[in-house]
Amino acid sequence: MVLDLQNRLIDLNPAARSILNLPHAQPLGLGVAEALRNHPHLLEQIDTGLEQTCLRIMGRDQIQYFESRLFLVFNRKHPVGKTIILDNLTQQALLIQRLETLAAIEELTNVWNRRHFMERCQRELQRLENLGQPVSLIFVDLDYFKQINDHYGHKTGDEMLRAVAQILRQGLREGDLVGRLGGEEFLILLPATVPDQACQIAERLRSMVELAVLVMQPNLTVTASFGVTGLATAANVSLDELLAKADAALYQAKESGRNRVVCA
User: Which residues are annotated as catalytic?
Assistant: First the structure.
């Protein structure tokens, strides 16, 4: 892509037209503010003279990533225009995203690991606070897991963890977050969900867990206890506070006989 010093488009190859989704009939000589109005980050690069930047451009079926490099064009040491070169970095970007996702997933259960879950929760709480929306948190603990693990062996314990994690993933809505804290403990963050609704979700999950059938021990009943807390609006609350309240509710569920939901 070639511009003059007045930022008018004076040359554009077919590849650039395709990448930027510009009509082939669009005449040259247009100012970039009009020609590239759907590409604000590219316009910003041109306006500021930034030599290099990364662009996210919506392609036909997926987002594509490009490195955009801007060069001044000189004639006898005098600037006469600008050239922009777009390099497609989509495959590299997708590979990085895939590696980041793999690093954030807990291998045994295929849910978020503790570190990534906590980071996601912090960001989600901030977003919900900005929107003035409710938030709820569910603390899940498998009942008698240590005894089952010791009696039936680690393979059965691992199958139990995988089965429960799959139930939690499948039983939640898009946008809900689930992570494994470690051992037999899981956490669920429910954005835009009032406490009463969270308690209903927890009860449904509890029933689903109780119906789980393990391949290695089909006669073994799997149960879990649930501690639920939440706020009508996610304002002035820390993740640690929510965790403490959900943990207290979970303790009460355990003390009350396990395999139940307690809402704080």
Answer: 184
Domains in the chain, ordered, with CATH? 2-94 (3.30.450.20), 105-263 (3.30.70.270)
CA distances from 209 to 143, 198, 204 (A): 11, 16, 9
Closest CA to 46 of 74, 10, 82, 11: 82
Is the Cβ–Cβ distance between 149 and 183 less than 8 Å? Answer: no
Query: Which residue in 67, 26, 10 sits closest to 1, CA to CA?
Result: 10
User: pTM for this structure?
Assistant: 0.69
Q: What is the pLDDT of residues 1-14, one digit of tens each?
A: 999 999 999 998 98
pLDDT in tens, 4-43: 999 999 998 989 988 888 887 767 888 989 888 889 999 9
* Alpha carbons 195 and 136: distance in angstroms, whole number: 6
Please give the Cα distance from 5 to 224 (Å, whole number).
68
